[in-house]
Design goal:
The protein has 396 residues and is mostly helical. The protein has two domains: 178 residues, MFS general substrate transporter like domains (Growth Hormone, Chain: A, Up-down Bundle), CATH 1.20.1250.20; 179 residues, Growth Hormone, Chain: A (Up-down Bundle). 78% of the residues lie in helices and 0% in strands. The chain has 16 helices and no strands. Helix 8 runs antiparallel to helix 10. The longest helix has 36 residues. The radius of gyration is 21 Å and the shape is globular. The termini are close together.
């Protein structure tokens, strides 16, 4: 196994761990809420601080990656995420619970940016797209972590014990793969000549456009996770056991799309794939909302998942390659735009649902897809990264 393959395996493990760690906590939220005696409002405000922490830390994460390198930051913050997970489970009061979630969001955003920075570095060494499959492994990790949490809850395993076991497993995984990661600077695989620098106005315009593309993909996923089951059950009359199938369909197809997306992107380019995916997602949700029915809506959510699977990796790849920005800073800026949209979208959808109807509020999904179509020209037309000189071939 050469250096590129070892590094790919290492960063894949970090993506998996990043997806699994917080997902272990989600099925234990009801237990934590009950043990702390929190009201719905108190619990919701504590969880909201996770997003605030992610937003604040995400804005500076790129500077950390630029200064220390993704090889150091990615595994170190993953270990820190694991350690903080135990603190969340041990929190004795609302204040400590909220503080631990704030720190969890901050650490997770730093780990996320560092993982993507190293994944893109390995991708440049390979000379072909691999980032989509890495994001697919994150999705698999989230499923694994959620299953671990659900099993622990079903077995009535103490929260602290469960989270300590999960933290130990994934912290050991992160620490164990450090030696396999690529040494040196994160720009080591770039061509020596580089690319022409862009002006500040053009960089800002490009970062915002890429951030909106990534944000719209995440918003479509977040709307499905937050409101999909409610829409299916209350508006369409689906049974309780059926209402959750919309989000499951989206997650399943998004994961498959990411695992298969590298080959498609390599052949057709990020721009064409983004356009096709956005068109698929927008058309599917428009049809489902125009002709509402349980089965067709679940299918539409699944088609949305397939359509958005490659959008975030495409936006991150383009941001990381912006001339004039240190490695990691473009990722951080795009991530900030994405997180702002995530914080704003639930309230906007809820307000629209109260003022009009939930069905009307879900029109945000085809509108988000239309915005991706509008901004897609900012993405590169082809996906053929330049292979650095004097590097071994990494064709797997």
């Amino acid at each position: 196994m050469n250096a590129a393959r070892r590094a790919r395996a290492a960063v894949a493990a970090l993506f998996l761990a990043n997806g699994a760690l917080f997902a272990n906590l989600v099925p234990r939220f009801p237990d934590l809420k009950e043990s702390l005696g929190l009201s719905n409002a108190a619990f919701g405000s504590a969880v909201a601080l996770y997003g605030v922490g992610a937003l604040i830390a995400g804005a500076v994460a790129g500077l950390l990656v630029s200064r220390w390198g993704s090889r150091v930051v990615a595994p170190a913050t993953t270990v820190a995420v694991a350690a903080n997970l135990v603190l969340v489970g041990l929190a004795p009061t609302w204040a400590t619970f909220a503080a631990a979630l704030f720190v969890a969001g901050a650490l997770d955003s730093i780990a996320d940016i560092a993982n993507n920075a190293h994944g893109l570095r390995v991708e440049r060494l390979y000379g072909r797209s691999i980032l989509n499959s890495l994001h697919g492994l994150w999705s698999i990790g989230a499923v694994v972590g959620g299953a671990m949490g659900a099993a622990a809850a079903g077995l009535e395993l103490p929260i602290a014990t469960h989270l300590a076991i999960a933290a130990a497993v994934f912290a050991a995984l992160a620490a164990g793969v450090w030696r396999l990661m690529l040494p040196g600077r994160d720009d080591a695989e770039l061509p020596a000549a580089g690319l022409p620098r862009l002006g500040l106005v053009r960089i800002a315009r490009t970062v915002v456009a890429l951030g909106v593309i990534a944000a719209m993909a995440q918003v479509m996923e977040e709307i499905t996770s937050t409101w999909g089951a409610l829409y299916l059950r209350e508006d369409l009359g689906a049974a309780a056991g059926v209402a959750g199938l919309g989000f499951i369909a989206l997650q399943a197809t998004q994961t498959v799309g990411r695992l298969l997306g590298d080959r498609v992107v390599e052949r057709y380019g990020d721009r064409a794939v983004a356009r096709a995916g956005a068109a698929l997602a927008g058309t599917a949700m428009t049809a489902a909302l125009a002709f509402p029915a349980t089965a067709t809506t679940i299918v539409a959510f699944g088609l949305v998942g397939a359509g958005i699977g490659t959008l975030i990796p495409a936006a991150l790849r383009a941001a990381d390659g912006l001339p004039g920005l240190p490695r990691g800073v473009g990722l951080s800026l795009v991530g900030t735009v994405l997180r702002l949209a995530i914080l704003a979208s639930p309230a906007l959808v809820g307000f629209t649902a109260d003022a009009l109807s939930l069905r009307a509020a879900l029109l945000a999904m085809p509108l988000a897809a239309a915005l991706v179509l509008l901004l897609s020209p900012i993405l590169p037309a082809s996906r053929r990264p330049s292979r650095p000189a004097a590097r071994p071939s990494a064709r797997a």
